Amino acid sequence: MERFEIIPVSSDEVRRVQENVQAAFDTMHNVLQSLIRSVPVGTVQTLAGGKAPADFLTRMGAGTEEEFLRFDGAMLVRTEYPALWAWAQANARVVTEAVWAGGDKAAFSTGDTSTTFRLPQDDLLLQLRIKA
């Protein structure tokens, strides 16, 4: 049987290791944030497995939740997501709310036609980089 020797370390050494681990984490977090910011508004990502994991947004890192929306049919306020609404109008299919509610859920809807719009509803897609 193999024996392990316990080597005493000072509190300064422990503190240095903790600081190095924190610095490495901060660097990885900053790189991830840079990558997220480089994804253009309106980029759509198909996720393997059919559905985004429930913790997908959380695992992307603190503060990134506002960068991502699931295509879950949610009604959004246009002034809160102006870049996404502008992108949808210029690049996507936008239908009236009545048409969307009638079953055409693969499109954006015009919502109440003045202050809101609706996301498409598709469990396989995730809308990336919604804020400029």
Tags for this model:
single chain; alpha+beta; three-stranded antiparallel β-sheet; two-stranded antiparallel sheet; disordered C terminus
Describe the structure in your own words.
The protein is an alpha+beta fold. The chain has a domain at 40-128. The protein has four helices and seven strands; from the N terminus they run H-E-H-E-E-H-E-H-E-E-E. It has helices at residues 11-38, 56-59, 82-91, 97-101, and strands spanning 43-46, 68-72, 75-77, 94-95, 108-109, 116-118, 121-128. The strands form three sheets. The protein has a three-stranded antiparallel sheet with strand order 1-7-2, with no helix packed on it. Strands 3-6 form a two-stranded antiparallel ribbon. Helix 4 links the parallel strand 4 and strand 5.
Helix/strand layout:
Elements: H1 11-38, E1 43-46, H2 56-59, E2 68-72, E3 75-77, H3 82-91, E4 94-95, H4 97-101, E5 108-109, E6 116-118, E7 121-128
Parallel strand pairs: 4-5
Antiparallel strand pairs: 1-7, 2-7, 3-6
Quick overview:
The chain contains 4 helices and 7 strands. By secondary structure, the protein is α+β, with helices and mostly antiparallel strands.
